[in-house]
Specification:
CATH topology of the largest domain in chain A: Glutathione S-transferase Yfyf (Class Pi), Chain A, domain 2
Oligomer: homodimer
Helix content of chain A: 40-55%
CATH class of the largest domain in chain A: Mainly Alpha
CATH architecture of the largest domain in chain A: Up-down Bundle
Strand content of chain A: 5-15%
Structural class of chain A: alpha+beta
Number of strands of chain A: 4
Shape of chain A: globular
Largest interface: A-B, 27 and 27 residues
Number of helices of chain A: 8
């Protein structure tokens, strides 16, 4: 069976899980505590990061967006990148937006400080970074709201990796109670639609020792 | 004519210039001072970042790696991603390595502090960041050296976007004299090969007011 090395609250890992599940490609997950990883894991991904997908015949695919592009090329079925050049540009623009801009401005400041430091036992949360993360999150929720107000899905008329990448980040932040949905009605409507997809179910049942998600985290009608 | 909005010392912009030139796709460049950009540019790229490629018929493609994927799909000719699934995974892994990991660990600390702050007139260089950038650069030069010692090109047997992304970053750092090539003989041999390609010529003639590149910057036999 193919294996996905992951961490429950890693947005890139969640993007990979959603990408596989949307395509109904079966996989097993293995938690990889990257701060303890040795040579075996470094051989799979020299960046020492999750996710890494390993096919049954041994092919290793490291990184959320690399896995997304790989699945599109290696497996048949509906596209999650889009059909036209314009759609594919927009999907990749947003995939990059979430994996780089949102990550640097929000997720690294909130998940990095509040989750990664705690579970790895390395460092103490930096209050300045956390405050910056919250401030940036408001701007990003407005942008997600604006996109979902003007389009059926974030990238356009159909569900794409743009939705999966955005939902991957937001679901991690929602798990630690960092999203005030009352301030973001349009983003909330869009997130409710993504959250109710079968591909999302496993994410809603994630457990992490020492963290208790708020009651609305699992609620499809939050 | 298609237009590339860029900044001379933006690694992502240089990746786009190299990607277009390697494919012999003609383009004009326009310098876009993103810290002054208004609504017109934000409509092309809401992230307010260069590069943005605008085709003659109006299609806008924002971001170095998005442009790389777009060129691969929109234009015929030799691939810069690789032919097999394995090659394309390795190219994208390294493209991501340079555009995210190298950028965050090295370029943001050196180019961001020493160049971007100066030309935009915003902020003063942070010595701690600069020291971190130099320390991380040594590790990355070793990794580039290891790759080029064991393969013809960074991604494998042929030139790919992995080489162009790496050379885009290193050429910006070389312009400000931040690379000690005497410490990195294998990386230097690889860089000399990339630097002597016709696609690189325009980059070697870049000028930036207030910055004088070291004499070896333009030298193909440095």
């Amino acid at each position: 069976m193919r294996i996905l090395y992951h961490l429950p609250l890693s947005p890139q890992s969640r993007l990979a899980r959603l990408s596989l599940s949307e395509r109904r490609i079966p996989f097993e997950t293995r938690v990889e505590n990257v701060w303890e990883s040795g040579e075996d894991f470094l051989a799979l991904n020299p960046a020492r990061e999750v996710p890494v997908l390993v096919e049954e015949y041994g092919l290793a695919v490291p990184g959320g967006s690399v896995i997304a592009e790989y699945l599109e090329e290696a497996y048949t079925g509906a596209t999650l990148l889009g059909h036209t050049l314009e759609e594919r540009i927009e999907t990749r623009r947003l995939l990059n937006w979430f994996d780089v801009k949102f990550h640097n401005e929000v997720s690294r400041n909130l998940l990095g400080e509040k989750v990664d430091k705690r579970i790895s036992g390395r460092g103490t949360p930096d209050g300045t970074a956390i405050r910056a993360g919250y401030a940036n999150l408001r701007f990003h929720l407005d942008y997600i709201g604006w996109l979902s107000e003007t389009r059926a899905w974030l990238g356009g008329a159909q569900l794409t990796y743009a939705d999966l990448a955005a939902a991957a980040h937001l679901s991690c932040l929602d798990f630690i109670g960092d999203i005030d949905w009352s301030r973001a009605p349009f983003a909330k409507d869009w997130y409710a639609r993504v959250k109710s997809r079968p591909s999302f179910r496993a994410l809603l049942h994630d457990k992490l020792p020492g963290f208790t998600p708020p009651p609305y985290y699992m609620d499809l009608d939050f």
